[in-house]
Protein 1
Amino acid sequence: MTNKSEWKLTFTRLPDISSDEIIAHMSDVRVVEHMPLLTFKWDRNTVAEFVSAKEECWRRDGLGHWAILCNGTYVGWGGFQKEGDEWDYGLVLKPDSFGLGARISKKAIAFAVADERIPFVTFLLPPSRKKLGGLARLGARFVEETEYDGAKFLKYRLDTE
């Protein structure tokens, strides 16, 4: 990556990203390591189903996950997904872009703060994630250990009002 001051982050939609790019991203062992629900192999059909599901969130809720670009290059995906009455924020970056997480999250959280539908944001992190200082710097607090689709997660909450 270039100098931090030269990083231009943009959010676009997942259909704008090639299937091959998403397959390579989601098949990287360094990504899989922190995704306990990722128990399958990614292929073009998986990508089509994934993108369709994320686009359905946009249609249903008016908000969803974005593809994230840094200086026009795909670095990962993330955004908000409605889970019951809560808006969950997720971010999945390519390993060479892990260092962009705080900057991307600040931009996304600013979006949530400006959206009156989102009084708070939740974060579900796998217990394998050990570096959690960024959440504290954002103002998120630990809520509980919870189970989602059979996997354990650490749940955090950030009030946006």
Protein 2
Amino acid sequence: MPEIESSVPGKLTVQQYFFILITSVFFSMLFTPVVGALAIRLGAMDSPSGRKLHRKPIPLMGGLAVFVSLWLSVYLLGVAGNSFRAILTGVSGKGYLLEGILVGGVVVLAIGIIDDIKGVDPTTKLLGQIIAALILVQYGIKIEGIAAPFSGRFIPFPVYLTMFVSVLWIVGFINSINLIDGVDGLASGVTAIASFVFFIILLIQLRGSPPPEMAGRMQIAAVLSLAICGASAGFLKFNFPPGKIFLGDSGSLFLGYMAGAITITGMLKTAAALTVAIPAIIFAVPLIDTAFSFLRRIFRKKSFMEPDRDHIHHRLLYRRGWNEKRVVLTIYGVTAVLGLGAILLTALR
């Protein structure tokens, strides 16, 4: 493999970012059929039912292909590029930051795989998400405070508030992606678009010459954003309607977890209100859908774990009579427009 070097130590090049995108797409397209065959052997199949659109059993466990593709591409970048290793060492003590994201991701992926194969009760699933989020906090991936709206003075959170807000942020992202995974290609496509937008925003912020520690964290977040984008895009080849394999909970939970992790990792230390709002704008479709789902269940006095047909994609499918492709492409478009708005807000502030 050719050496990928940077002329400026500790600063990634366009070629390195391109490398992570291309390798993650390639590995995802390579491993997804393999994981599909494995899912069939393990019995991780999504059978047709009243709430589902497919008419034959479809393999689950697509998250395993996304996970392997993402981390293999990141590993190869570390092997091939000295500058990325320098960033990891300078920011997080020889990969400590990445180690935390990886460990928490393994927890989420494992719960999802078990759920895909034999099912996991909602309480256990939620507990696993909280554990994964706490792992991130333990590794220093947390929201430590916020800047006052007008003075700009940084207001640090007490330890327990930091823990609560960080866990809530991660668990919220996990469930937002999980809840929109009701139409072939929707969760993987939205995540691919949103993560690429976040990558662009990180590049814009890096032009402002943030402090070295923060610049390093933002470059790590940028690498992970592209890896998520590529792994999701490669998977989409097999997941776009009509899907030949589904993300399953292994995939939707993992993608949501990674979205939460990279948004925290890439936030400026000052945590200005707009900085915090940018990820929410990018991932607005799944986050708004999750918020309305939460409120809907409160007003109807139903369990938060009880499924329904009132999500955004369900309304377009069953009340508007749209087909799957139209629903998916429309929500892709909305996500892209929101992402463009987030990019403009970042560039103009």
